[in-house]
Design a protein that fits this description.
Layout (H helix, E strand, L loop, with lengths): L1 E4 L9 E9 L2 E11 L9 E7 L7 E5 L8 E9 L5 E9 L4 E9 L10 E5 L8 E9 L11 E10 L5 E10 L10 E4 L2 E7 L5 E6 L5 E7 L10 E5 L4 E3 L3 E6 L2 E10 L7 E7 L9 E2 L9 E10 L2 E9 L4 E8 L7 E9 L30 E5 L2 E9 L8 E8 L2
Length: 412
Amino acid sequence: MRTVALTAPGGDQPAFEPHLALDPANPDRILVGAHYGVGYNRGGRGIWHWRTDDGGRTWSGADVALPRADADLAADAVTAFGPASTGYLLFVFARSPEFRGGAALARIDPMTGALGPARLIAADRWDEKLGAVDKPWLAVDGGQESSRRGTVYLTWHLNMPQPDRTVTSTLWIASSRDSGWTFTEPIKVADHFSGQIAVRPDGTLDLVFGDRQDRLMFHASSRDGGRTWSPPDTITLMPQDRAFDIPAILATGGDSVIVCWAEGPRAVGDRRTIRCSRSSREHEWSEPAPLVPDLPATSSVSYPSLAVNRQGVWVLAYRADTDTTAVVLYRSPDGGRSFTVHRVLGSRPFGIERFCSSPGGDCRRASADSVFFMGDYTGLTASDDRLAAAYVLPRGDGVGERPTVYVSILEP
């Protein structure tokens, strides 16, 4: 295993919420994106990207210019590579407090490796009373048997505050058949939140999303490139006193899809356990099973990311115990039915009381010197013989030391 602490953005800025992608045509090429600085609600003030062409032995990094010069918020970096080696970096940006902005996409040229300018793809729609762009996601169809191979799919939410202090959300999708140069008109998929998208080998799209109370989790699929969608089916329903965090979805091959999420008591907010559910056919989901079956009451597992290769299904997660916070890689050789610990990628000597186990918990607003917050998600990607994980830990042992992006590369 090779683990690298990536250079801090701007020389000394904290970085959060990393995501990464391997080039399927050349797994030595890896792209990592993250937001940096501390902005509104622990979002960032800028976007940074790092690249390697030699499997992580050497790295280069640079800022990403935001499409709006006066933007003071940037977050939600998501990366991908297409089958023709074009790289993609997606993120949101806005000017606060009105949150005018949207989701932007930058392309990495497959020949030169240079990152082009970020272009606005999905703008806010305040004037239509639909609100601000949040939590975009990105997927590229790499299926050998798909008629839409190479298509780039973007999903995002529009969040609109209401007079009664609630927020309504709508989930949207657009696609590109020309490597991200132009996109279709957006299509509204649902009046829900928390969506991630995955693409099966035959080109079928799968979306996971939830209601604003984080109790009902849904799935929908599309067989025509996102133009029409199946009626939503329910993956899980939380009891009244429990809630889930942002779910992750993975197409594991054939018709098999797996979804994992962290959940916990609303009253506690921070302690979490991860559960996963599988579907081998649409609308038939297995009973959610715990990633760690006998998790002690003094422990928490959260922030799952998913990947698959010929060695199995993989989950990357944080585990916080009484005295230690660790980044742990779990493996399932049976398609996601059961998992065991494969390796601890990194750890720090502080426990659950000083680690923010839930992106929606009160700990998000705590002082950085008292509670470590890593963002809303991590990154995990795989090729046939390689895994790469991106995550955040303090640069040293102290909870208040600079949040730093680490990348671990394994050949299990």
